[in-house]
Amino acid sequence: MEALAHITTPEFAVAFIVSFLAAALHSTVGFGFALLSVPLLSLLNPLFAPVPQLLVVFPLTLAIVWRERHAVEVRSTLWIFAGRVPGALVGVALLKLLSTAALDVLMSTMVIIGVVIVISRGTFRRTAAREFGAGVASGTMAMVSAIGGPPIALLYRNDAGPTVRANLGLVFAVGLCITISVRAAAGEVSWDEVVVGAALLPSVWLGLRASHSLIPRVDGPRLRNIIVFVAGAAALLLLARGALNW
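Given the sequence above, the corresponding structure tokens read:
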């Protein structure tokens, strides 16, 4: 409880609302939790992010996969997982070669190129090569910027809503399990962070519940547009951060 003693009531109220909105977005679109919550909550109070957000999005992701389990495509996600391994290695190499600002600009450029490709091809189809390539891009971005969702979301843009959410959820669940396990083994997860995450869990549950009403309103063409919008927002966020730190 010591961690909560260093958080004011207004700060917790803002964190609760932000986590709720991020969970509602993630549960409806299939990604976007970290994109919305981590930058805002890190500025609000470092105790809120990034570890507490990793801890609360993990059960949320599992719940989404279970809800949409009928739409999981194991073969597709296996190609993505295969691509994330070399992608992570590329990310490690880039971390050694480039500055943080240059990396942000490079990652934002990757997402913008992906957005342009998907938009310019109305009948964009998923293939094993594209699934592997999206995995590489996602693994690289996750290692460099902790934002690995946009490449995979763009890959599934033309699929039905349940397919988008189920397969993104499965990829994220495995990735989060690895990330949290590695952090815990390295002593990078404190009890205070666990307490803060537990305190925010009700907001995430409420966001998941809210998505049940939102999904019927956005599935279809609207969902495809939201995916492009959120991916583009991620690119602009990285580009702005890179420009400010250049």
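DSSP finds eleven helices and no strands in the chain. Try to locate this feature in the token string yourself.
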